[in-house]
């Protein structure tokens, strides 16, 4: 192969040293390069074998799993299923409405019931006209009726599927003139929510694909080079999806793991490949032969990719502290995607680069745009190096202005309005609350010994925000009954959660054998476990990140200020989320209804992902600075050259990551929109304010103290070199 030497290499750009062939990542790169045909063949076979599993992943995953394991709400759910099946607390409800009182003209209702009996998986259809008035199946104005439908259910994952089938079936029925029928309830809402999620995934893939390819073309100036990161990311994601599919054979995996693993896998996969390809092209421009160039590339950019992936994986692992299947498998999906794309970047990419020869290099007669851009970045960094205190103050002020709103963040879990209007579960919900009251769609169910049922009713009616409490089941064989408690506010209102908390506190004293569950309590318990476990998970992430930085850079100072900068970035992102999703600023532009709160899972997930991704750019940047410091011994020069050399690649990577996150953010329901847009803002802040202002200014003020660690610590820390 030829050596691509640029005789016009800028004087200030000092070529890197020859590689250390004994170094681990150099040996890995050389092995991949020399056995490139075998490596490419293995990945090709792996990707082709993974494709069928990846393509069919959505149909295999579960739409259930939102209960907090071990919570009171989960215990009540199981008791209702086992001891009170006739109550049908989880059954889909068909909301039927006509313009005249149903009791005076029941023909439309009877016709609908007859058709429902023939519906998918239907075992029984309750007739609201024959149910006792205290059951509340007919609205006060007599024009709306609730028809609980019992379906044949095998496992938990069947519930949203069956509810979705019923919704589609009812949507195709013809009802009496002037009447309408919709299907709502817990599982119809989750069914529609999951469908929106699947549709959003396909839209995001289309929306992000072309802009990403264009950005890669701008980054490399050649379509072949531009296509490599995208193909590598796809190969990694396919492998990750296939792994998820196979794990689903062993344990249920949430369908939500797909969206988030695709988003993170695509974003970091392209970024990892972009950093490696950019560094390889630079090494070739400096005059190295292909093997030496790939060895140097993997010893620097490849090592940073490995450390970045490790950081993201460790950060996401903290989510397993939350005992909720959906969140655990969402984290698992993202972890598998990150591992898969990192493996592709570290093994397949070196083989592909060597196999393609000069086709991935800068065209002859043209200068490497990354090297050309170094001058601009050096000038911008020079401002921070000359006036570090002022630049640091301005940068902190900018981020601080965004951090302030985060102190007013309110947390909650969404209700049926997280589903778009026009979906049967949302339209049925609106019909139900209009006829029965805002809390009717999300009651609490209290299971209690029959002898104490009246005490539960009296206690509930004396509790703030309770509008109704009544027994809704005959005694079970256990001697217990069910009391339905209806709040005066929707399920996603904080007042409903407060009602559950106060009711439980009073019943713990008055009726110790009473258990409070049902939809209202499920939201309360889910929020409680998320907010309760978040501090432990966040502490674990901080400790692991600090130790990793300490080992990599052998400096307490760098580890400390990196953690602090990431905390400020995360705080600013939280502030952005609070402004948009809690207070509604700009929601009209993205076509969503703000909920008045930020989803309760956000702090933990935001922190884990934001911290992992913030560390991504910190590691690449600080690794480049350390590499230059090891080469020159001059901290000030190392800062300038490290930022200059990574300036254009990090900017391109950040733009691509922002494109991917925004695409997933604007196409989905509120939860992925929250995550996508907040991640996009965090990456923007990281790639601009943190990289251009905070890092150079802080390091300039610290000088040689940047590399400080006690002598006793230096003796036990391993040496992680980014020089050759």
UniProtKB/TrEMBL annotation:
Coiled coil: none annotated. It is found in: Cell membrane. Keywords: Cell membrane, Membrane, Transmembrane, Transmembrane helix. Its main location: membrane. Pfam families: MMPL (PF03176). It is a multi-pass membrane protein. The chain crosses the membrane at residues 40-61, 213-241, 253-277, 304-326, 332-357, 389-408, 534-553, 560-581, 601-625, 646-667, 679-702. PROSITE patterns: SSD (PS50156). Residues 215-355, 539-701 form the SSD domain. One of its GO terms (cellular component) is plasma membrane. InterPro entries: MMPL_dom, Mycobact_MmpL, SSD. PANTHER family: MEMBRANE PROTEIN MJ1562-RELATED, MEMBRANE PROTEIN YDFJ. This is Unannotated protein.
